[in-house]
Each structure stands twice: as C-alpha cells, then as structure tokens.
C-alpha cells in the first residue's frame, strides 16, 4: 500500500516528467511536503486536451462521481490494480482519467515489528518515483467541483516485501508513463504496466518516529535512524 509519501519540490518533479505547472495553482502549491497523508492536497500529472502534460493539485482519496457525499474519499487513497478496472468506485476513472503522482519517496511500516518504526523507500538510482494513479471529479458541493485521486497498488517486490505485501505501482520509464497516460493504449497493454517494480530498483532505510504523526513535516523525516527492529531480509 501507500499511506504516506514525499513531494519535496513540485516544480522539479513536474520538470522530471516533462509537465508544466498549471497557471491557476494556489500560492502555497509549491511548498515542500515530506509527510503527505490521505485527504491532503497532492501534485498530480495528467494530460491536457491538447495532449501535453500538466501538474495540478488534487485531494488524495478518491470520491467517485456517483457518491452521495465526499466523506468516503479518505478511505479510497489506494486502489488494487488487479481489480480497479472492474470496481464501481474506480472503473470509470480507470478507463478515462489516469494520472501520474510524482514523488521523491514513500514510507512503510513493518507489520510484525515490535516497535512501529517507519521506513523510507525511494528509487535506487535517485530519480523520482512515478505512481500510477486515477483521478475523479465530484460535483456535489456548492463551492465547485472536487478533484480527487488514488494511487494504484500491486504486490510488493523483493526489495520491500519484508516491509509490506503491497506497494505502489511504479512506472519506471518514460515509455511506461506515456502508455499509462495515453487515452488510446489498448486495455491489455495498460494492465500489463501494473506490475511490481523490478527487484533492485528500490532502496530503503529506517527513519525516526516523527513520521508517525502527520503534523511533522520536514526533510529530517527522511534521515536514516537506527533500526528498532530490523525485518528479516532487509539490509542496512
């Protein structure tokens, strides 16, 4: 799964994926965030009607277009890639509203550890991550439409399987990003993109307990900390 992640610099993340920043982003949109949690605003990359990429902000936690209210979005911050195409909450977005959520890394917590210590996970080559995502529009509020998103997940690869049995779907190269966003990618090719990242492509290390509280948000959250209880198979 993916329940916390990092977007340090949206401008740099947009540039890394050949996207432009939308002109109507609010003044605080480029504030660095090192501990993003569901229901918060996140940077999302999608295609414009002209076929170019742009980065905007959406609330993390998908609210289906048919929902009676927006309260359930906080629970739909992840979608299983194996079933998203059929699930009522996600199937329309899967067909028509695919996106990329760029990130510098994400956090995970070992389920069997005696102490709830988070681990930070990023690409081994230092490049930003591209989460395969879906987005939706909910028009049930008087102040205007609500744009929300969810991150697709898949089975964990060998790099982090001892941390969790699920991981975000990572689009590892430009070809995968382009195919995921393209409206005309055949369904079979699209689904084939939703696989675990190759073994050896990720790095991870234990970090301090400040990540456990959403109110903490700073670059120190990603710094390596002594492991409280190292999961078997993870090398420091």
How big a fraction of the residues is strand?
Answer: 25-35%
Total helix count? 4
* Sheet having the most strands: 8 strands, mixed
Q: Please, how many domains?
A: 1
Tell me the number of strands. Answer: 13
Give the SSE order as H and E letters.
EHEEEEEHEEEEEEHHE
CATH topology: hypothetical protein yedk fold
Uncertain segments are none
- Assembly context of the chains: single chain
The amount of helix comes to: 10-25%
Silhouette: globular
Span between termini: 22 Å
Secondary-structure content class? mainly beta
Q: For the record, what CATH class applies?
A: Alpha Beta
> What is the H level of CATH, i.e. the homologous superfamily?
SOS response associated peptidase-like
So, CATH architecture? Alpha-Beta Complex
Describe it.
With 236 residues, the chain is mainly beta. It has a single domain, classed as SOS response associated peptidase-like (hypothetical protein yedk fold). It is built from four helices and 13 strands. Strands 2, 4, 5, 6, 7, 10, 11 and 12 form an eight-stranded mixed beta sheet that branches. Strands 3-1-8-9-13 form a five-stranded antiparallel beta sheet, with no helix packed on it. The radius of gyration is 17 Å and the shape is globular.
Key phrases:
236 residues; mainly beta; hypothetical protein yedk fold; 8-stranded mixed β-sheet; 5-stranded antiparallel β-sheet; 4 helices; 11% helix; 30% strand
